[in-house]
Structure formats: C-alpha cells, structure tokens
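TEACHING EXERCISE
Course module: macromolecular assemblies
Task: Read the component lines below, then compare them to the predicted structure of the full complex.
Student: A.B.
Group: 4
Components provided:
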Amino acid sequence: MATSIAQAPATAASEVHSTNGQLPLTGLAGALESKLRTKTAKIGVVGLGYVGLPLAIEFAKNGFETRGIDLDRTKIDLLKKGENYIQDISNDVVRECVKKGSFTAQNDYHNAGDLDVIYICVPTPFTTNKDPDISYITGSAEMLVKELRDGQLIILKSTTFPNTTEGVVQPLLESTGKKVGEDFFLAFSPERIDPGNQKWTTSNTPIVVGGVTSACTRLAVLANEQIISKVVAVSSPKVAEMEKLLENIFRSVNIALVNELAKLCDRMGGINMWEVVEAAATKPFGFMPFYPGPGIGGHCILIDPFYLSWQARAYDFETNFITLAAETNESMPFYVKDLVFKAVAELPIRLRDAKILMVGVAFKRDVDDTRHSPAIRIMELLIDDGATNIEFTDPFVEHLWVKGRDFASKPFNAQTLQEADIVIITTDHSQYDYDFLVRNAKHVIDTRNATSKVSDPSLCDKIVLLGSGARHGRPQSVTSKKANV
Ligand SMILES: NC(=O)c1ccc[n+]([C@@H]2O[C@H](COP(=O)([O-])OP(=O)(O)OC[C@H]3O[C@@H](n4cnc5c(N)ncnc54)[C@H](O)[C@@H]3O)[C@@H](O)[C@H]2O)c1
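Instructor-supplied answer key:
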C-alpha cells in the first residue's frame, strides 16, 4: 500500500529522479515500479492519433510490450498490417514493431485489464460555440472503468482544463470502489509533441507530470522516464493541466500581438512588420520572435485557450487576454480575404470569375494536418462572398472538403500557377520554390513572408505581403524566413 507516500507533502516543481531521497514504493506501487524498471510493464495507449501513435511506438521501440487502442477501425486495420499514417514516425519502425509483436493494435478495450500503464491521448475539441468537449476523455475513462484492475497507472495526456483529472476522471475510476493512490494510480502529463519538428521529438522534449498522490507522481515520472530524457514533476495534476494551457495561451497571445501590429503596419504604411520582428529578435534576452500570419489553426493553440476562458467564467472571471488574442487571431482570415478583394478590384474581373489558388492548406508548415486550418477558413469566407473558382495545392494534402465541395490538390507546376489570377500563400511548406512560384504567378498574396528571398524588383511588384506596410512591392531589407509553427 502506498498510503504513507500518498500523504507525503507535495513539493514545488522539481525533477524527480527515481528513488533518490525518497521512501521506497511498496505494495502495488512497488510492484509496478519494479515492472517499469525491468521493462516488463505492459503499456497501453488509448487514441492513436498525432500524439498517441508516436508515444506507443516509442515504448514499443524501447522494448515494452505495447498495445494501442483506437475506435477508428481504419487506423487499426492499417496498423495491424504494419502501415503507418503519422508523418513524424518512420514507416520502417512501425512495420518492425508490428512484425516483432512489440506493438499491437485493437479497436476495443478488451483485456485492457492486462495493461500496467495506460495513456489516454484522445481528442479534446470544442463545440460550435467554443465550449470544451471532453466527451472523448469521459468516453475512454468509462470504457477503462470496466477493465480497471488493482495496480494500474492511468496517465491522461489530452489537453484539458484544470481539475479534469481529479474532478472528472478520478471519480469515474473510483466508481469501481477502488481508491486512487492505493488501488490504482492516476496522473496528468500533457503532451508537447510538435508535428513536423525534426529537432524536438517525443524522446528529447522534456515533459511535465502531476500525479493525484505522491506515489502516482513517482510512478508516472518513472513510466515517462522509460522513453523521455527529462521528466519534470509538479505538485498536482491541476498544476500540470494549467501549465499546458499556459504554454498554448502564451503562443496564442504573442501571435495575436504580432498580427495586430502587422495590421497596424499595413495601415500606417512604410513599416514592414517582418523586418521589425527580425530586428527585435537580435536582442539576446527578454524577446522571443513570433510572426504574423493568416490566423492560427490545428488542434491546440486555437482550441486550448477556450478551455480556460470557459472554466474561468464559473469563477466570475473574464480571461480578457485570451479573449482578445482569440478575437485578433480569428480576424486574420477575414483580413486576408480583404487583401484578396483589394487585389481582385484591380483586375478586370469579378470575384466570382477570379481563379484563386491557395498554396498550402495544412495549418502549418510541413505537416498534413488541416484541422482548423486558416487556409480553409479563408476558402470558406471567399466562397461565402461569391468566389466560385478556388483551387488548392499542397504536397501533404490530397483532398479537402469545404462548404460541401470536394477539392483535390492541384500539382504545383507552372501551368497551375499561370492559370490562377491570384495565388495566396497560406502555408509556407519548405519544399516549394517560391522564386518559381512568383515568376509564374500573376499576383501573389503572401501571408507568411515565404517570398522573402525573391529580390528581382519586377517580381516583387506582383507580391502583396501581409504586414509589409506596402500594398505592392516590398522593402528589400526583409530577411525573415520563418512563420509561426
Ligand atoms: N496534435 C498535436 O500536435 C498535439 C500536441 C499536444 C497536445 N495535443 C493534445 O493531445 C490530444 C490528442 O490529440 P491528437 O492530435 O493526437 O488527436 P487525434 O485526433 O490525432 O487522435 C485522437 C485519436 O483518438 C481516437 N479516439 C477518440 N475517442 C476514442 C475513444 N473513446 N477510445 C479510443 N480511441 C479514441 C480517435 O479515433 C483518434 O485516432 C488532444 O487533447 C490534443 O489537444 C495534441
């Protein structure tokens, strides 16, 4: 029994290194500790998406018998054949893990009681009114309740509002009559994966853990340490839940700030916001560069702030920074739409006849994820306002379903570019040749400063750069290369 350990005073954020200076774990906790140390613990991962599959494969690669559970039969069928669908992990590694049997996949919770550690990595979207939807978390916890066995460790990874772990998941698991910290263990450990990031991966990105009891924290730290180089323990799941939201709100607020200033630069004229950011970034301390763009997307930065602002209202508290940032970021697709209107106004055609090519529809560079992509929002707005002739090209996305229409990716070639009246660079994938793009396009709206290396003045005249402070052309001093990722 881990009772005495569970009652040990919680500490502030600190690295926890195995048993250093701590009482040994005993009973069920001790048994799980020993299974983790001997790599005989069976690992389960519920939800095999952008977060869950890389995590599961990392455990399988490191010698743990790992089982993935997902309700999506298509994904399970692919995995059973050893086929990978997540860009960031190697097809060979997935095939090898399936072949060796270190990774298996199933589309139900049958025998989840066999597993020693279970990670929950299910979606946490919002509703159409932007209220949190944690039904995937409760749905998976309800399934686990039926299989919960003494000694299991459950680690929630889905981003959510503070107190989901203790206020929602814990009561569901304890409805079995089992007690957290004694019969089973529960922790929150938010995910930090950055799809498309080659440098920071599942294994080398430090991760935070907060357990319901001290034993829960220690076991969750140990489980994560099997595959992650640095694990940071905090005093509770609530701190870990809030910490994750802070990370994403920090990005949302800072992106909103540069977006606002980009619009101001365009209003004032003569100041290029991209150059301003690059100049500010030369300060070696106290400044971190963020870049303007067509809006934010994906399953994290756009959604997560709303989880907190929704919760804050229950405390008569308005999270004004979050709301203002959301408002500014949400305005960006509308701003880009207006740039298109202005460009069309200078052509001898109407919007409905203009052929518009969206270049890059994934929500950020070099990924295939189109969830909440600002490019799609811009397409919707243009269609709403009468555009009928929109196409897209994206090396990572074959099809898009927008406003009831199926769009297929066009090849990125001279013909596609030449046929368009207006080309909008919405996502700056690194494999595009932007010089080639501008040479072949008639008019370019660049929302990412992807054309920063184009220096031929006759080509620059074709470009409208969001935040450049000039409707046509661009100051040649612009050197920035990046957009927010
Ligand atoms: N994608 C990211 O870059 C990222 C980064 C950090 C955190 N997160 C957070 O991680 C969580 C998962 O995100 P994701 O991008 O991996 O989502 P995803 O949609 O790619 O994957 C989730 C998977 O869960 C499955 N699923 C849904 N309900 C289930 C259930 N009851 N039982 C079993 N499987 C179920 C879905 O079929 C899907 O395959 C979210 O909370 C997200 O905010 C995501």
